[in-house]
């Protein structure tokens, strides 16, 4: 594995710190994105060295593929009653450890897996820490059926919402075959109210606000140190 530098080193260092929370016998959720990829690679190396007996479930096809390459044992989420721990990345983390996720379009499964977990540890480089959520466009996954109607309802809540995320020449489709609308809202003053308003729109499958779900955030620096950030 080539040694990373800068933000990438921060991601790897945070992932390494998260590995310290993994114990034999655990059921583990594997997040998605470039930071979660570091965790998957390091976990795979740890398993290869021996002595770590765990069962994992992946939050995306991409993570599933990487985990298999790394020799990590995978099972379907439905094979577990509960997960002990999920380790995942985030696009924004506020001081209450509320999150915006879904930059990779995996937030539907990520949220289902996080909700099934006793603990959600977020790993990230320092750029993800923000005083207030909302500078990152909020991903909202919507069903393709009736998408025009859903977009109009969505616009009533968050303003104009172009269908601009692309997957090649076509609109981006999630692993579950839905569109993702990236809503440029700006500072989100009342995240619970926004989350409730979005969830109430028929056709909205899931939004990227993860409120009250993370138990801790492990933040890596470009110098290769990591710190444990707790809720304030
Ligand atoms: C995917 C996610 C990712 O965790 C989030 O986008 C962070 O990704 P990265 O670690 O590549 O910055 O929510 O849906």
What does this structure look like?
The protein has helices spanning 6-19, 34-49, 61-69, 107-115, 147-158, 191-199; strands spanning 27-30, 55-58, 83-88, 92-93, 99-100, 117-125, 138-142, 166-167, 170-171, 179-183, 204-207, 209-210, 216-220, 226-229. With 232 residues, the chain is α/β, with parallel strands linked by helices. It folds into two domains: 6-128 and 212-222, Rossmann fold (3-Layer(aba) Sandwich); 138-206, ACT domain (Alpha-Beta Plaits). Helix 1 packs across helix 2 (34-49). It is globular. The mean pLDDT is 96. Bound molecules: ribulose-5-phosphate. Ribulose-5-phosphate binds next to helix 2 and helix 4.
Query: Given the helix and strand composition, which structural class is it?
Result: alpha/beta
CATH class of the largest domain reads: Alpha Beta
The largest beta-sheet arranges its strands as 2-1-3-6-13-14
Question: How much of the residues is beta strand, in percent?
Answer: 15-25%
Bound molecules: ribulose-5-phosphate
Low-confidence stretches: none
The SSE string, one letter per element, is HEHEHEEEHEEHEEEHEEEE
What's the CATH architecture name of the largest domain? 3-Layer(aba) Sandwich
Helix percentage: 25-40%
The oligomeric state is single chain
Largest sheet: 6 strands, mixed
Descriptors for this entry?
232 residues, alpha/beta, Rossmann fold, Alpha-Beta Plaits, 2 domains, six-stranded mixed sheet, three-stranded antiparallel sheet, 6 helices, globular, binds ribulose-5-phosphate
């Amino acid at each position: 594995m080539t040694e990373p530098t800068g933000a990438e080193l921060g991601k790897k260092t945070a992932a390494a710190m998260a590995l310290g929370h993994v114990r034999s016998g655990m059921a583990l959720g594997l997040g998605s994105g470039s930071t979660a990829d570091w965790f998957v690679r390091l976990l795979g190396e740890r398993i290869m060295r021996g002595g770590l007996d765990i069962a994992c479930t992946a939050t995306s096809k991409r993570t599933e593929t990487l985990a298999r390459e790394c020799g990590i044992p995978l099972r379907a989420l439905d094979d577990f009653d509960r997960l002990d721990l999920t380790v995942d990345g985030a696009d924004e983390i506020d001081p209450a450890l509320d999150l915006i996720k879904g930059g990779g379009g995996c937030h539907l499964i990520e949220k289902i897996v996080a909700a099934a977990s006793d603990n959600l540890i977020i790993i990230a480089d320092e750029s993800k820490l923000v005083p207030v959520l909302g500078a990152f466009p909020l991903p909202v996954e919507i069903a393709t059926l009736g998408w025009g109607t859903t977009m109009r309802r969505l616009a009533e809540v968050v303003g104009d919402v172009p269908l601009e995320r692309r997957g090649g020449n076509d609109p981006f489709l999630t692993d579950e075959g839905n569109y993702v609308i990236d809503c440029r809202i700006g500072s989100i003053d009342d995240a619970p109210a926004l989350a409730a308003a979005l969830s109430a729109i028929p056709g909205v499958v899931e939004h990227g606000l993860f409120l009250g779900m993370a138990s801790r955030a492990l933040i890596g620096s470009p110098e290769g140190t990591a710190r444990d950030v707790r809720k304030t």
